[in-house]
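TICKET: design request
STATUS: open
ATTACHED STRUCTURE:
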């Protein structure tokens, strides 16, 4: 039994039996893991942490075949302000859906842990603009996972759109934008509102902390990011948990 210590963000926490919980955590050094925490809901629980969804914990555990077993946990950040606000929580839940859908294998990626931590931190710290935070997180995560969409030139003809206000479509399956000429007859694409491409490029470029608190394009940005993740996610079990529905 290998005992280890790690930091993780609780993605999901479900009751199991009388007093136990089964957790999904995105950890700093081991990527996505599932673990059981026994006796967590007893009054004299040995856990200092309550292991609520989105909280960031430092924990000790030993490895098991399918489930690891947590033996200790301590809260580093509870992110309780996110859980207490529906709109914030909805954005965070979708971020969690993105993490689950884009973390296909066992690969550990500390950058994913850091990105999620900073996104939760920014979500908790701001008073509005949660949707653009969610979209920017999904976009940055897709890029980290190796699914960067092509936003500088048409995926069909390679032409750079000169007129960013002009007719541009996004094609999730092709992984990028289509110019007016190539996008004309494409069924598997949808039009971007004028100016949306510029905002898409901005959420790729800007650090999370610098995203605007008012973003008039946030719905268009979310649509692009969601459709892109759904089209390319290795584990497509995803997103229903994040509050959305996959298209049939
Ligand atoms: Zn084209």
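STATUS: resolved
RESOLUTION: sequence designed for all positions
ATTACHED SEQUENCE:
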């Amino acid at each position: 039994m290998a005992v280890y210590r790690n930091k993780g963000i609780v993605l999901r926490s479900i009751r199991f039996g009388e007093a136990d919980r089964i957790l999904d955590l995105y950890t700093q050094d081991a990527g996505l893991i599932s673990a059981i925490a026994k006796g967590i809901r007893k009054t004299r629980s040995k856990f200092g942490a309550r292991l609520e969804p989105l909280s960031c914990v430092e924990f000790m555990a030993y490895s098991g075949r399918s489930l690891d077993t947590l033996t200790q946990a301590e809260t580093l950040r509870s992110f309780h302000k996110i859980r207490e606000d529906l709109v914030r929580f909805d954005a965070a839940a979708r971020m969690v859906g993105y993490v689950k859908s884009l973390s296909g294998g066992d690969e550990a990626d500390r950058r994913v842990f850091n990105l999620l931590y900073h996104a939760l931190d920014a979500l908790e710290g701001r008073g509005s603009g949660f949707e653009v935070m969610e979209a920017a997180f999904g976009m940055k995560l897709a890029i980290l996972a190796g699914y960067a969409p092509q936003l500088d030139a048409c995926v069909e003809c390679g032409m750079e759109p000169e007129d960013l206000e002009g007719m541009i479509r996004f094609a999730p399956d092709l992984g990028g934008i289509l110019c007016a000429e190539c996008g004309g007859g494409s069924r598997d694409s949808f039009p971007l509102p004028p100016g949306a491409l510029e905002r898409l490029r901005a959420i790729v470029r800007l650090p999370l902390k610098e995203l605007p608190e008012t973003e008039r394009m946030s719905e268009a940005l979310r649509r692009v990011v969601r459709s892109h993740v759904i089209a390319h996610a290795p584990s497509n079990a995803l997103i229903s948990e994040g509050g959305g529905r996959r298209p049939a």
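CLOSING REMARK: The two ends are 44 Å apart (CA to CA). The chain has two domains: 3-78, 81-149+189-242.
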